[in-house]
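hiii, so i know i said id send this last week but things got crazy w the move. better late than never?? heres the sequnce for the chain we talked about at the cafe, plus the structure i predicted for it. fair warning i was half asleep when i ran it
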Amino acid sequence: MIAAIIQARMTSSRLPCKVMLPINGKPVLDIMIDRVKKAKKIDKIVVATTKNELDDIIVNLCQTKNIEYFRGSENDVLERFYETSKKFAVDIIVRLTSDTPLIDAKSIDDVIKLYENTNSDFTSNFFPFPRTFPDGYNVEVFSMKILERIHNEAKKPSDREHVTTYITMQPERFSIKRLDYKKDVSKFRLNLDYEKDYLFIKKVFENFSKNIESFSLEEILEWLENNPDIVKINADIKPYENIIKSFEDDSKCGFEPYKNNYYLKS
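okay and structure toks below
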């Protein structure tokens, strides 16, 4: 079984409660789930949230939409993914994060197809760097066998928080494949981390309000090319700030840094 597991919690440090912020009258997570449902190669959607009572609202949303969910560790996200996958007997994990509500079904299906056709350990549309897809369109695919391996081996706080850095920071140990877009559009920022991102994403959804569940990356890019003032809303935000901070925290905890940290070089 191929399952899209969407990690979601209310206690995001940079933009608290972002997954439930309203867009066109619906919470961000609600919209994202509906967009992920359009993917043809996904058998099941599961929201992986936490035991924190603040996340009861996420559980209520899942129950209302008849979407499976799992409540696990708040900070050990790798543990949460592992326990989620075990509970639902998932064979292939499609990892998605709830701060990517603009993700489209075609991008999800295309990464899954590449994974199936290459027999890789890990397939995504952003790694190895340099990426060609925009930040905010991340899709990762890997097996339960690989998830169990990294769950057992990964010790650094950054690896427990970001789930797959144990793989991406050690490409010599894993077979990794990357899906590329037809051209480099990585300059666009489509993820939801800060207030400016929310304002930007609201503008995008407002423009495509008649087709909110199905508009594609191609349509987004065409519209942004014709509306450069929209792009400026969140263009000054530096990418990867959170993950870079977590690598710094590793050092404070006495862990040796990865020899080739691609995020620091990007």
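btw Residues 2-265 form a domain with the Spore Coat Polysaccharide Biosynthesis Protein SpsA; Chain A fold (CATH 3.90.550.10). thought thatd interest u
miss u guys!!
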